[in-house]
Every structure is written in structure tokens, then in C-alpha cells.
Amino acid sequence: MLPLLLQYDSTAEENETSEAHGARVQIAKNLHAVRAIEALSRLCGLSSVEISCPSNKSAYNALKALLTPKLADMLRNHPPKELLSNLNSNLESPEVMGSISIVMPRILRFHNKIHVNVCILYTIHHHGLLYV
User: Fold this and answer.
1) pLDDT classification of 128: cutoffs 50, 70, 90
2) What is the b/e burial string over 31-40, where b = at least 16 CB atoms within 10 angstroms of the residue's CB?
3) What pLDDT is recorded for position 101?
4) How far apart are CA 44 and CA 10, in angstroms?
């Protein structure tokens, strides 16, 4: 889910009537990014009142380490699009100083590490090297 957050582009509008394939693709990426923020919020137990989720301090602490504490805190009480705009902004702001330059390498390293581990486990299982 984390790489989806980095594909958000606040300049693409959901109600855009452009028939261009690129515009439709970006609108879909934005929708996926918003849904990923909502899922991460629920995973941490920070979701809105309409859906009750148990608190998950471990997940929240992991997101604080990956996203920066300020961005993780925005899961609690900010609209997903605001968080995504801050995350993907190249502007320095009091909310997030240089967030993309800090966060993107963290997310990509984490994603690659998980991907490699899954590939190793699949290979071990596929070749019958995993004994339970």
C-alpha cells in the first residue's frame, strides 16, 4: 500500500472530463492512494466514527517511522487528500519539512525488503525446501 501513496498527484481532478488515457490513469492512481490512506488509518485504529477499529500501536509506530511523526499523526484527523498532498509536495512546510525526500527512500527500502523476503519464501516453498 505504501508505494501507492507516492503516486498521488493533487493536480489531477476526479471530475475531469478529459478523455486522455493519462488523465484517467492518474485519477485511478489518486483513488488508490486515498483508499490506501483509509486502509492504513483503519489498520492503526484511527478510522472515523462510522467504522470502529481497535487501536494498533505497533502499526502506528511503524507508520511514524516510515512517514515521519507529523504525517502519521495526520492519519488521525485530516482528510486523506490533505495528507497525500503534504506527502507528495516538494514545498517545505511547517507540517512536513522535505517530506518526500525523507519519506520516499524509507518507503521504497521497506517495500523492496518485504518484496525480497516474499520472493525468498515463495522460492523456498515452491522448491519444497520449507518443512513445517
Assistant:
1) low
2) ebbbebbeeb
3) 57
4) 25
Over residues 29-65, the pLDDT tens digits come to 999 999 999 999 888 888 665 667 888 899 898 888 8
CA separation for the pair 115, 109 (Å, rounded): 10
User: Minimal CA–CA distance to 36: which of 71, 8, 64?
Assistant: 8
d(CA 83, CA 68) in angstroms, rounded, equals: 12
The per-residue pLDDT for range 83-109, each reduced to its tens digit, is 898 888 765 555 554 455 566 666 667
Instruction: Give the Å distances, CA to CA, from 52 to 44, 58, 60, 120.
Output: 11, 18, 16, 36
Residue ranges of domains in the chain: 2-126
Helix (H) or strand (E) holding 74, with range, is helix 69-77
| Rounded CA Rg of the chain | 17
